[in-house]
Amino acid sequence: MIAIYPGSFDPITFGHLDIIDRGAKLFDSVIVAVLSNPSKKPLFSVEQRVEQIRYCTSHLANVKVDSFTGLTVDYAKLRDAKVLLRGLRVLSDFEKELQMAHTNSTLWTEIETVFLATAKEYSFLSSSVVKEIAQFGGAIDHLVPANIVRDICNYYQNKT
Ligand code: PNS
Q1: Where are the domains positioned within the chain?
Q2: What's the pTM value of the predicted model, to 2 decimals?
């Protein structure tokens, strides 16, 4: 069974990587799908994010990384996948995630969303938290892999 793990991943964190690691054990293959959303102003381009995630997941033979635009269910159909994988951190995630899962199932009745509880050590972690800390020069090496630390440092150094 193929699972799609959709998201912004701007940038990918240890929390996301934990979900990918565990998802790869549960499903035959996992496609990490980076949303290309022109209305958002991301830190990293979609191409950069795809490259970053490929590097971080290269040890997982059944994980592929791709990008998509438009509706997640349309991308899932394109890939012949009927499962969406999402991580749940805290209660505040639940409302948004349930709304998304229900919306997606109205768009395509065959789609199932499978939630994995995020590892408790990453329950506070988000891409926004990482960017906020990095912006002010704080340490992020306990939150994201080394290639992301390097890319974020380069980003903020080139900005000033
Ligand atoms: O990492 P994020 O930002 O929480 O991921 C959100 C994402 C990409 C999964 C969600 O915004 C999404 O699926 N967007 C594509 C548009 C879509 O399919 N919308 C209908 C479901 S609400």
Answers
A1: 2-159
A2: 0.96
